[in-house]
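Hey, can you fold this one?
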Amino acid sequence: MRICQDLALVLETNPNLRSLDVGGNNIGDIGMAFLSGGVLHPHCGLKELSLDSCQLTREGGKILASIIAFSKSLNELDLRGNPLDNSTIRLLCLATSLPGRVLRKLRVSRASTEEGFWFDLRQDNPLPCEISMD
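Sure. Predicted structure:
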């Protein structure tokens, strides 16, 4: 996952980079682990991150929950096309509720969830950011 290591370095050293689209690249959970170091770096100014169809699973979801919880700049996160299960999506949504988070929009695939999942989730905990399901 050399490319993800390189991208992390770019994020650490280029605070003016605002948008990154890695969509369609099979970076998987290991690549996400490398990339997260750059996204969470204090000098990272990234506002939009697209990880559409990157083969992220539960482990990648845990990493992304940390990014949602601790990123000081990330406003939009696109996770459509990834095989995320309900518990992972619930974890991501709960991370948006933590104090100090800045994420405003989270995109996931409707196919990732069972019927009634979103209704139940919103009933349990109103979500502070926009969640879109495509």
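The two ends are 28 Å apart (CA to CA). Let me know if you want another pass with a different chain boundary.
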